[in-house]
């Protein structure tokens, strides 16, 4: 559970914990980039908010990849393998991240490869897939495949080739009773644990602290320079972060909630922020919203949609 940012927020608190049934998710909405070469660590150290040099085979990290103004192009889950680094990120942002990261390679001995077609990312929820499964946030195990523990209730990402994943799923089916889940449910679980994945519409809109990346241990304030570092550090040390991430719910509307939709004060109609990501599951629309925190949150929040849909922080 992450600490409150102000007296007005209960974001990420225990009532949001999921009671998960045993499920496997063949689709997680995520893609994978592999960074190979002697300068792979140096390249990533100069671009991502986390400290690449602190990563171990047993510990991954969430990170932000920022532009020069400190706005997050994409959030990433960075995993160190014996010969390379894996970058796990929303599939919607794969091409954008590849294009922008390759601009910084120059003469470095580093190659970025889209491995989405060669590697599969399996989602597991509601149970630990083996007795020695990793337990800490973003801890990594080999059980027998690379498996990353996600924050909150038992949830994991497992990486492998299609054949390895099929074999692993067969192994799980021989040991556990589980169901197969869908992409909407997996995204709902991500949102319920405040994992700040987002799509292209919200790229380059927020600094890392507004997305809770610091709360998840994904920002190093001592590692030195990286693209956008000056803005990120200044916001941290001068206390100028004016927005924060919250988990919210609203009734699903006929037209659906659009990521990027404004969130308004229901009384003054003043813009308070926007929807970062949302997913509907079991008749509930759960969303991550980035909201102003300077003067506290109003009690009556609505979406700036045709229905003026009420939305509540949970």
Automatic annotation (TrEMBL):
SUPFAM superfamilies: Folate-binding domain. Signal peptide: none annotated. This is Folate-binding protein.
């Amino acid at each position: 559970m992450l600490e409150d940012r102000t007296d007005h927020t209960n974001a990420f608190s225990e009532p949001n914990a999921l009671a998960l049934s045993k499920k496997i998710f063949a689709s997680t909405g995520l893609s994978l980039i592999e960074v190979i070469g002697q300068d792979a660590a140096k390249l990533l150290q100069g671009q991502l908010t986390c400290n690449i040099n602190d990563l171990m085979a047993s510990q991954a990290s969430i990170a932000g990849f920022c532009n020069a103004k400190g706005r997050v192009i994409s959030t990433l889950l960075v995993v160190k393998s014996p010969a390379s680094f894996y970058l796990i990120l929303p599939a919607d942002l794969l091409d954008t991240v590849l294009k922008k990261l390759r601009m910084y390679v120059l003469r470095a001995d580093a190659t970025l490869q889209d491995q989405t077609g060669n590697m599969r990312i399996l989602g597991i929820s509601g149970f630990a897939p083996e007795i020695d499964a990793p337990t800490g946030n973003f801890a990594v195990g080999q059980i027998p495949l690379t498996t990353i523990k996600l924050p909150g209730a038992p949830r994991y990402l497992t990486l492998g080739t299609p054949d390895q994943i099929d074999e692993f799923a067969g192994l799980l089916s021989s040991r556990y009773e589980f169901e197969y889940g869908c992409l909407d449910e997996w995204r709902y679980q991500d949102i319920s644990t405040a994992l700040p994945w987002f799509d292209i519409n919200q790229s380059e809109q927020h600094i890392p602290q507004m997305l809770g990346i610091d709360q998840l241990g994904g920002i190093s304030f001592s590692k030195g320079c990286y693209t956008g570092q000056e803005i990120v550090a200044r916001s941290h040390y001068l206390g100028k972060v004016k927005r924060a991430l919250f988990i919210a719910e609203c009734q699903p509307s006929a037209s659906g909630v659009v990521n990027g939709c404004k969130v308004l004060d229901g009384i003054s109609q003043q813009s308070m922020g926007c929807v970062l990501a949302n997913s509907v599951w079991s008749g509930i629309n759960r969303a991550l919203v980035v909201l102003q925190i300077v003067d506290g949150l109003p009690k009556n929040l609505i979406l700036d949609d045709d229905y003026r849909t009420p939305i509540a922080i949970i």
